[in-house]
Specification:
By secondary structure, the chain is an alpha+beta fold. It has helices at residues 5-14, 25-32, 68-83, 110-114, 128-132, 137-142, 158-172, 176-188, 213-224, 237-243, 307-322; strands spanning 37-44, 47-53, 62-64, 210-212, 228-229, 232-233, 248-249, 256-257, 262-266, 269-276, 280-285, 290-296.
Length: 323
């Protein structure tokens, strides 16, 4: 008989942990030797194997998770769709914002924004400063040139996520802060602190969200458990599965991308991860119930071939020890 994903996860959570915290000493020593790394949390099936603030803020203190925010915003979007306050991924975004462009912008859907396939030129990297210095971040992001057709190649752009956040706010009548606290913070028992807003008062979509490292680990455990936390369905399991369907590929890491999640494999297991500037990282491996949170010095870059690659190898080693 074929197990459902929920049954499989339940089995993981009830099974004895193969590796105890003391056995993670080599991994923890390696983490302590990385000058950019601030915090490391490793859990399996809800059991904490490593939880240490090596430097920087305590694990229960509010921390800026940078572009891990994109994964959190994607999750809020999925909840909104399930609640019926936002249409499905195939819905064009322009009418949700009360706009009409008369060109390819009218074809951009919520799903295109979620998978970074909107086709709009990026507002990130060297364009970021000009974007957040503009009088209206939404208008600026929508006015970017079309570099590809909607649904085409992966174009990393925080501006496209701000468009998504603006649509979510417009359709719910609630700020992203309010929705984050109601749909994620309250069920998980964690807090979201206010983060930057655009000149019109919209919270930045896709960057600079702030919550404790422990809260981010709880979010990862909830995702690994099929969206369930303490007996309550926080995120629809069907949305998690939809989010993990590959739709695009990062030109830098080569990893696939779903709806707000990068997709790869560690220790021959499927894995999904959220990534933020400077080395902020949440990784979940649903088959083994592994959750890994890394928070790092956000003032220093973490490129795929450098520090971020080191973090991926660290996660891979943790996964290999637990299979």
């Amino acid at each position: 008989m074929r197990l459902t994903r929920r049954a499989m996860v339940a089995g993981i959570l009830s099974a004895p942990t193969v590796l105890r915290a003391g056995d993670m000493s080599t991994l923890l020593d390696e983490a302590r030797g990385l000058s950019q790394l601030n915090s490391l949390i490793v859990r399996r099936g809800g059991e904490t194997l490593v939880a240490e603030a090596i430097r920087g803020r305590p694990l229960d203190a509010i921390s800026n998770v940078k572009s891990v925010s994109k994964t959190l915003l994607a999750t809020l979007t999925g909840i909104a769709m399930h609640e019926g306050v936002l249409p499905g991924p195939d819905a064009p975004v322009a009418p949700l914002l009360g706009r009409q462009f008369g060109d390819a912008r009218d074809e951009i859907t919520l799903g295109h924004l979620l998978s970074m396939q909107a086709g709009l030129a990026s507002t990130s990297g060297g364009n970021y400063g000009r974007w957040i210095s503009s009088a209206d971040w939404l208008d600026h992001a929508l006015a970017r040139p079309m570099e590809d057709a909607p649904g085409g190649r992966f174009i990393y752009s925080t501006g496209s996520w701000h468009i998504l956040g603006a649509a979510l706010t417009a359709q719910t009548g609630e700020s992203l802060l309010t929705l984050s606290r109601r749909w994620l913070g309250r069920p998980l028992g964690t807090d979201f602190a206010p983060w930057p807003q655009d000149p019109q008062g919209r919270y930045l979509g896709g960057n600079d969200m702030a919550l404790p490292a422990l809260g981010l680990a709880d979010f990862g455990d909830m995702i690994n458990a099929g969206g369930v936390w303490q007996g309550a369905q926080v995120v629809p399991e069907s949305w998690i599965e939809t989010s993990w369907q590959p739709r695009a590929r990062s030109p830098w890491s080569g990893d696939l991308y779903g709806y707000g999640w990068f997709l790869t494999r560690y220790a021959n297991q499927p894995a999904a991860y959220a990534r933020g500037y400077g080395g902020q990282m949440l990784t979940v491996l649903p088959e083994s119930g592994l959750t890994v949170v890394v928070l790092s010095d956000a003032s220093r870059p973490a490129r795929s071939g450098g520090y971020f690659g080191t973090l991926q190898r660290l996660v891979a080693r943790a996964a290999a020890q637990l299979v």
